[in-house]
Specification:
Shape: globular
Number of helices: 7
Low-confidence stretches: none
Radius of gyration: 20 Å
Strand content: 25-35%
Helix content: 10-25%
Strand order of the largest sheet: 1-10-9-8-4-5-12
CATH class of the largest domain: Alpha Beta
Mean pLDDT: 93
Distance between the termini: 45 Å
CATH topology of the largest domain: Rossmann fold
Structural class: alpha/beta
Number of strands: 18
Number of domains: 2
């Protein structure tokens, strides 16, 4: 794929940080930048991932002026954890993330498109956007900037924000050819790595077929942690941190985890609390790893250095009629599935079957509940 870095503010070199995979059935953008530090497609030490995200947060915080009321918006689904970590570096901020999930009949304040995505629709549920002086948009990678432009135009066209509102765009990876300039808008930028995305092409690799689990699923221990907020709606960042720490502490205190090598598997948009759980396990001497299920269909291949080695196709825990995927799944001493999805035995049995097929027999499901 050639050299991609234009500028890199991290401690990681290109091979450690960036891989390029082939999207399935996406003519608009046939490649996917796989950030190995992101904790989405490949397992990662949550301490490293959260420190990496916080570095972006400190850069984004530098764009804020004293006394501003700041809303931080993480883009679903891959930037929900990144957005939360960024928000915690912006003192006094409010956090929410966009969603593609049905919110029980609640009407979103803003809807906009991510045109290149496999799932184009985004919704933001914020009741009073005009109460903020700055909105910080957080994404994992921005190549063209079209999604951000769509969001700003939607906010402006509906008169939802105050005329003097300022914007900051923050991303782990920023394309050198991204174009987010808008007439009359005051937009600041924060990023950790800048790449020349115009030179990226989808790799031509021999595919490995997707795996589908059978009905022979191991049992799972299930626990619920209740009284927690929904970050799809506004939550004060510090309050969200407190809720995630309580979720992690209660889960660790109630789970019977065997062995040292533990996977915490988040589900789709539910990423930051699962990383907090992984961090709590690390603090207790466990070798905890985090990644998550995703809607993104990506080609798997066993070619050396290709970032996606295996693909499991599964029904979503949020909507069993929707396809979801988990990549690079391995065997562990114990697995914790962390989710805020309502219980669905059919979908859960499929993901338990996938884990069981790899020798994972000690599985737990921890559910975040309002």
């Amino acid at each position: 794929m050639g050299r991609l870095f234009v500028e890199n503010k991290t401690l990681y070199d290109e091979k450690q940080l960036v891989g390029v995979a082939k999207r399935q059935n996406n003519a608009k953008r046939p490649f996917l930048i796989v950030n190995r530090m992101q904790g989405k497609h490949t397992p990662i030490n949550p301490l490293e991932a959260l420190a990496y995200f916080s570095q972006l947060g400190r850069l984004a915080a530098e764009s804020c002026e004293r006394g501003e009321r700041v809303l931080v918006v993480g883009f679903a689904e891959t930037a929900t954890a990144i957005g939360a970590a960024v928000a915690l570096e912006v003192a006094g901020s409010v956090y929410c993330h966009t969603t593609r999930e049905y919110m029980g009949g609640r009407i979103p304040s803003v809807e906009f498109l991510e045109e290149h995505s496999h799932a184009t629709d985004h919704a933001l549920h914020v009741k009073e956007l005009d109460g903020f002086d700055r909105i910080i948009f957080v994404d994992d990678e921005i190549t063209t900037g079209r999604t951000i432009v769509n969001f700003i135009r939607a906010i402006r066209s509906q008169g939802l924000a105050k005329p003097a509102v300022r914007f900051t765009v923050a991303a782990l990876i920023f394309g050198a050819d991204a174009n987010i300039s808008q007439d009359g808008e005051r937009i600041s930028f924060a990023y950790l790595t800048r790449i020349d995305s115009s030179k990226i092409t989808a790799p031509d690799v021999p595919p490995v077929p997707a795996r589908v689990s059978d009905a022979n699923a191991p049992d799972a221990e299930r626990i619920q942690v209740t009284g927690l907020p929904d970050p799809r709606e506004c939550v004060i960042s510090e309050n969200y941190r407190t809720a995630c720490e309580r979720f992690a502490a209660e889960a660790v205190g109630r789970l019977c985890l065997d062995g040292e090598n533990i996977l915490v598997l988040g589900t789709e948009e539910f990423m930051y609390p699962s990383m907090c759980l992984g961090r709590a396990l690390r603090s207790r001497g466990k070798r905890a790893w985090c990644h998550a299920t995703t809607r993104s269909p990506i080609e798997a291949s066993d070619v050396e250095d290709y970032p996606i080695k295996s693909q499991w196709a599964l029904p979503s825990l949020y909507d069993p009629l929707r396809q979801t995927y988990v990549y690079n799944l391995l065997g562990y001493d114990s697995v914790v599935i962390a989710t805020d999805a309502p219980r669905n035995d059919v979908a859960e049995r499929r993901i338990l079957g996938a884990l069981g097929a790899l020798g994972n027999s000690r599985i737990h499901i921890v559910r975040w509940m309002a």
